[in-house]
Amino acid sequence: MTQEYILHPSHAPRELHIDYRKELNDQQYAAVTARGADGSLNSGPMLVIAGAGSGKTRTLTYRVAWLVEHGIEPSRILLLTFTNKAAKEMLRRVEGLLPMDISQIWGGTFHHIGNRILRRNAKLLGYGPDFTILDREDSASLLNDCIAEAKIDTKAERFPKGDVLAEIYSLAVNTERSVERVLAEQYDYFSHLAGPIKTLRDVYRERKLKANAMDYDDLLVNCLRLFQEEKEVGDRYREQFLYVLVDEYQDTNKIQADLIDAIAMLHRNLMVVGDDAQSIYSWRGANYRNILNFPERYPSATVHKIEVNYRSVPAILNLANDAIKANPNQFAKNLQAVRKGGAKPWLIPCADANQQSQFIAQRVLELRGEGVELNEIAVLYRAHFHAMELQMELTRRNIPYVITSGLRFFEQAHIKDTACFLKIALNPHDEMSFKRIAKLMTGVGAATADKLWVKIHPIISGLTGDLPTSHPSVPKKSAADWKQIAKLHNNLRDKSDGDKHADEMIEIVLENFYSGYLKVKYDNARVREEDINQLASFSLQFPTMEEFLSQLALLTNLEAEDATLISADEREFIRLSTVHQAKGQEWKAVFVIGLCDGMFPLGRTLDNMEGVEEERRLFYVAVTRAKDELYMTYPLYRQMGGDAGGFQRASRFVVELPKMHYQELSLRNNAAHW
DNA sequence: AGAGTGGGCCTTTTT
DNA sequence: GGCCCACTCT
């Protein structure tokens, strides 16, 4: 491999701003300051196995700072993270460490980086630079259109719906398997439909291209295509990214791993950081073998282990260490606690979900009394509906809580409606947005929306892009709505006063149509209008329309929440969250609830060993979120239809724990206290 | 062709 | 509780 690109002559030693030796432990220091065998900054491939609470973020942050301090241009560093929040947080911390400007560092999720690269090069793939991003709902509904168009008789034989198809295609993309294989391995009951399912995929692809739209997976696929097929562009980025750092590597899937390899293959300064014990996204195609086999894929890789835990008291950490032991495939590690003291975790069998809820509510109040802030308390569970009873109990007792919910802020109907007005103004080929808006008109459903698109599309993709205020294809009943919408659309596109900013456009949408629509349609119109105003102010932070709209599609709920909700109300609250969404976070007191077989591990994950192992990793993630106190609870009885109801057994993950790790609390005997 | 209503179904995790 | 579907009315 030629190294003639490498531009960092060894500088004469100079004053560093950070005392790395002092601020890092030995293991972190070794990873942060790693150099190549020749002593140069070309460290080559590195695998950093960082256990829970071991300062993984700190290590990455300092590594970036170290590189910059040693003369690496920020623009030549690529930092890939699982969420944008993580990227932002790390860059913010680097900024705090160094006096220089590091805004040129490329940081974000795979989808974001893909998006960023594609915006500049989409033309090579037949897309315009202002392509629309389809979220999962958009993809599913476009697929439903394709099914309808293909005239598949969905009644004669049960044919998968758009959302299921989207899932199948997505798995195929993310794991780089053929549709047939995905069907055979995960959807065998649809195997006989492989033919039409594959045909539909082609139709779907064409429709996306025509609409100048990419779904989530396209952001990865097309980016990879760019690197593999467009040598010139690929080489430019390969050349640019002298250092590639990847966070949460255990959760990457095949296509992401390939993308990383494709980007880093020139300079090979690839540092991947992760913890195989915390790989919990296999259902999304993640493959923890990416991290396990990294040393084989990169034989020259150096391996660093970071095993000092700063987060949890020893009793919690010991429990966690033993909890994960039953998994056969993992890097051996032994996390060591820095902290001292602390209480043993509790195991609390409860009569049923109501008693479980009462216990938690009660204990939360006591913790509050002991001076633990509500913000330092979290309740974690396997699936959202496990927390239903708890939500009711907390509400009854006026204990404030927030849920990192399944529904994202940006997925709510009124937010998406508003965004569609902006999208169609920007991308006149955006069929999905047009139809969504059309269906807002009274008297227009799917059929009429289809018809309108056929008639109207040539007009808006024409020279001016303006809409006539009346049109023969518009039903009489909808004429008034149409007039408003047409004027509104033309107004949004009007550039006589210069380009409009997103917030300005949102205001126009509200004032000229949508506010009125909300009032008629929803009983909580005011709340929704307020949401849309929030959206407008949120848009202010983005310099361009494309960036704002991309963010809407790509932000996770956690990030959305930070951006919009927290500022609204600074109150204290406990956090209710799935284990998945709790990843990377920590609280003083953590309750893990619903720990019976069938809930956690969740029933249908148990058909195979891999499934059980992933559930165990999930349990490991859950317990390692706790700093000081850990409560594990489960109901002995569940009232439910079907075979999941009735008397419950404690989770196998609890049963397999040596008893020395916890103290069992019987609620009956302690009723007076708890 | 659309909108509104009632009954039966099912509840994982998400960029 | 929420979603989907079938049914009925306009």
List the helices and strands and how they pair.
Layout: H1 20-23, H2 26-32, E1 46-50, H3 56-69, E2 77-81, H4 84-97, E3 106-109, H5 110-121, E4 132-134, H6 136-149, H7 162-175, H8 179-186, H9 194-210, E5 213-215, H10 216-229, H11 231-240, E6 243-246, H12 254-264, E7 270-274, H13 289-292, H14 294-297, E8 302-306, E9 308-309, H15 314-323, E10 336-337, E11 346-350, H16 353-369, E12 377-381, H17 388-396, E13 401-403, H18 413-426, H19 431-438, H20 446-460, H21 479-493, H22 502-521, H23 525-539, H24 545-554, H25 557-564, E14 574-578, H26 579-582, E15 587-592, H27 609-623, E16 626-635, E17 637-638, E18 646-647, H28 652-655, E19 663-664
Parallel strand pairs: 1-7, 1-8, 2-3, 2-6, 4-5, 6-7, 9-10, 11-16, 11-19, 12-14, 12-15, 13-14, 15-16
Antiparallel strand pairs: 17-18
The protein binds a DNA duplex (15 and 10 nucleotides) through α5, α10, α20 and α26.
Rounded to the nearest angstrom, the radius of gyration is 27 Å
Sheet-strand content, in percent, reads 5-15%
Strand order of the largest sheet: 13-14-12-15-16-11-19
Number of strands: 19
Task: Describe the largest sheet.
Answer: 7 strands, parallel
pLDDT < 50 runs, ≥5 residues: 1-13, 563-568, 669-674
- Helix fraction, binned, reads 40-55%
Shape: globular
- Please tell me the overall pLDDT: 87
Give the N-terminus to C-terminus distance in angstroms. 67 Å
By secondary-structure content and strand pairing, the structural class works out as alpha/beta
Count of separate DSSP helical elements: 28
